[in-house]
Design brief:
The structure holds three protein chains of three kinds. Chain A is an all-alpha fold. Chain A has helices at 2-16, 18-46, 56-73, 80-87, 90-94, 100-130, 139-165, 173-187, 199-205, 210-213, 215-221, 227-262; strands at 50-51, 54-55. Chain A is globular. Chain B is globular. Chain B has a six-stranded mixed sheet with strand order 7-8-9-5-10-11, with helices on both faces. In chain B, strands 13-14-12-15 form a four-stranded antiparallel sheet, with helices on one face. In chain B, strands 4-3-6 form a three-stranded antiparallel sheet. Chain B has helices spanning 49-58, 91-98, 120-123, 143-154, 158-172, 187-199, 217-234, 245-251, 269-275, 319-329, 342-356, and strands at residues 2-5, 11-14, 32-45, 61-75, 80-84, 106-111, 127-131, 205-209, 237-241, 254-259, 262-268, 279-286, 298-304, 307-313, 332-339. Classes of the chains: A mainly alpha, B alpha/beta, C mainly alpha. Chains in contact: A-C, B-C.
Amino acid sequence: MLHLALAQTSFKRMVSYRAATLAGLVTNFFFGAMRAYIFIALYRGAGKTVVAGYSIEDAVTYTALTQAAIAPLLLFGWWDVMRTIQSGDIASDLTKPIDYYSFWLARDLGRALHDVLARGVPILLAYSLVFDIVWPGSAAAWAGFGVSALLALLISFSWRFVVNVSAFWSTDAFGLGRVAYMSVLLLSGFLVPVAFFPDWLQGLVRLLPFPAMVNTPIELWLGMLTGRELAAALLVQTAWVVGLAALARFAYGRGVARLAVQGG
Amino acid sequence: MIDVERDDGRSEERGPGYQSHDAGKVSRDAAVSVSGLTKTFVTHARRPGVGGALRDLVTRERRLVPAVRDVSFEIAAGELVGYLGPNGAGKSTTIKMLTGVLVPTSGAATVAGFVPWRERVRYTRHIGVVFGQRTNLWWDLPLSESFDLLRHVYDVPRDRHAANLHRFERLLGLDEFMSTPVRQLSLGQRMRADLAASLLHDPLVVFLDEPTIGLDVLAKERIRGFVREMNSERGVTVVLTTHDLGDVEKLCRRVLMIADGRLLFDGDLDALHARFGADREIVVDMADDYPEVGVPGASVVERQGRRVTYAFDRHGMSGSDLIQELAKRYRIADLSVRESEIETTVRRVYAEMEAHGRMEVTE
Amino acid sequence: MSGAWATGPPATGAGDGLESVGAALRRAVSDGRSGAALYVRLAAARTRGQMQYKVSFVLESLATFIGTGLDFVTILVFFTRFDHIGGWTMPEVALLYGLVGVSFALAQFLGAGFEDFEEVIRRGTFDQVLVKPRGAFLQVTGSQFPLRRAGRLLQAGTVLALALWWLEVEWGPGKWAFLGWTVLGGALFFMGLLLLKAAVCFFTVQSVEATNVLTYGGQEMAGYPMHIYGPWLRRAFVFVVPLAFVNYFPAVYLLGKPSPMGDAATYAALAFPLCGVVLLFGIAAWRVGVRHYQSTGS
């Protein structure tokens, strides 16, 4: 099947970049350790054991998981499609009888699988050696996390896809994209857990799809969402998966149509 | 003339192209003087697989790749020399050493009186370099600004620079696109601009690396005309690296040929053709399957089914004569005559060298 | 024909003692002046090039402003939940953040060519640098003049200014001068790191990302008072990579904070020289890299 093959090729390609993977691992771990230390210092300095519902271990685990998520979710930006559009290469892609969105999705999933195994897992393990980490408490919690993480990945892909296809309309798509990706670092809960935000900001941020990308799966892992809350969170994520995918496909369709008229 | 003892005891008189193999004997009269130049690269083999990758971290397999082997030649001031050879022969490596980019493993070279890799900053003031695939100009600036910046980079007196630029603008037709950003120029335009840029500072020696690659016939002619004029009028020594036989035939009287890191030939272009087959090839599509397809005056180079490629010496037999001979013997469906590539000539040179163990050149 | 051989073969044989030293010095000064002049020209040309795309420039500056501002927003969020970090109040932490931010922004401005050097190696365009009659260092420095980095500079500068205002600082000219030295020293420090990053590119392009740990990681870490980190990190930032000297010790000295890591006055005085050492180290690494390139090709 084509999509499976695409995913596999993508996976294998990533495997060949050994040195880059290692370098990325070291970088991610280091930054994560730094952020963990900052949390520890904050808590100890204030003499608090729980802040905004997070214990020290929760906070440290949070940094571990966000760092582990950098590579799989490409949190610092993904530009492949934008580059294809801006260089004009997309013209040749359009002549191929394949659904563009699912083509790239398949490749992204292959790559993500590699990054989870080669970057995500090792970072978590390294963390567990150095810090006190919280692990999911039950099989149900693991399962919940797994589903949530997959949904988060799908949301992330659609979001990145939307950012990329903005290049159909704007020559400054790169600048806009950078603003978008950077803003999402804050709004998704990557830099700080959403629970830490002042209440008024939390309300606003939770209206956006970004916490569903990062914050939600992590809260599931930490066991902060159970029962009905868990189900609700997963539902919200699913809604965003569908909604963003629809937006991505719609935007792409309009972009291509525009391209056909404008000539690129 | 320099007397050289050959291995088999016979001594022969040779032209200035040959030199004894004592490294360090560089002549100061020549514009380019190269002696025993050698460059060996050290590469590391990558072992496959994950286990291999881990072992790679501990020790790595060293592999020595000789790119240039003991190359010697001299180019007098004002010469226009072609430097030929197949890909991977060591052409660009040699040029890199002569332009101060690369340091040789052993051997000596002097260009315009400088040792290129030792005094890079002072030396490069006096040379011009054009890379066929890449540009020396600033990508996002208008061409005129690039020229102006280069004036400051090379420290050229204003009036000299202006005079040169004015001349080149006319000769190369640059005024049409002087205010266009370099990234918007077509390949031909960019080439002309790069060529002009390489000469604005009155260099003594110019190294042109594939200056006509990818250009259409008209553009090639224009470039060749300009190079010829610079060489004849200003006496700029030109070292032209190229795959294009047309460049060589139209511009160079002297040719250096390198293959597999070694200098195989150094001499007149005519001598090259005369010696190694002023080759032409005819590709014939036979109308029938003939068991034998020989013909006097030509040799069969290749045969694929009904398509036979013949090679013949143009000095020995004319193309039309050969066709007549073929027509006498066979029924022909179609045929075409083609010029032989420099690759083929080099292959023949190499084959000859292997067959005879040495090079024989009559001049 | 141009007087081609007028500047021809260089004189061989050694110069005579003092005369040659004087000549060398004069040449160094004139080289330096001509180098600086060329840099200004290149920067002006780059500026003109970028100004062609005013909208892009504004957007990219905005992107940088926001992106760098996010680090500070993170700190602000922390301060909604915690009163102090390691005993430092928010204005004090803002001072730390502002100092290192401005230093890093300055270094990025001047050293952008080195930060993006990876691309030069990947494309194989370093040869074009080597065939021009100018030092490689000067050419790479002049290859970029990224106006959009002004966003970061502006953002960090704003935080610094706000911090100083909030702290109601009343220092004499001595302390203001010291502040200036601190920022400059920090810029030298990060410039040295950027040079190191570029030098690494000559040897391997795949692992270059790891050097971001030193630059971006360093900048982020130095935004918090250094004594909050574990003992190993603290020692590393004092004795291995002198990050603690970029802004922490100077700030401790300026604010008169308690200094659990060492005598504030002494360490603050060492700050500038140590940052200079990092720069020299970076320059040395760069030269090793260039020599390596010249002996191995690409």
